[in-house]
Specification:
This protein is α+β, with helices and mostly antiparallel strands. The chain is about 20% helix and about 35% strand. It is globular, with a radius of gyration of 12 Å.
């Protein structure tokens, strides 16, 4: 199973990269994908995730060929 993972804003800076192309054998959730891609970094609080450009819950399943994006929470005023 091939999955493209993208990181935006402060996540990109913190991780030192903007994307990963990963291969997994088993079905994953978005939460599992973060752990597999970033074993040294815990999942940040209030992170937003999207699968194929649609916001999803962190327990949503990821399928072969999906693109998963992680965003820090957005603030503004």
């Amino acid at each position: 199973m091939s999955i493209k993972v993208r990181y935006f804003a402060s996540l990109k800076e913190k991780l030192g990269r903007s994307e990963d192309n990963l291969a997994f054998v088993e079905v994953l959730t978005v939460r599992d994908l973060w752990g597999g891609a970033n074993p040294q970094q815990s999942l940040p609080d209030n992170i937003l995730a999207a699968v194929n450009m649609e916001y999803v819950d962190l327990d949503s399943r990821v399928n072969d060929g999906d693109e998963v994006a992680f965003f820090p929470p957005v603030t503004g005023g």
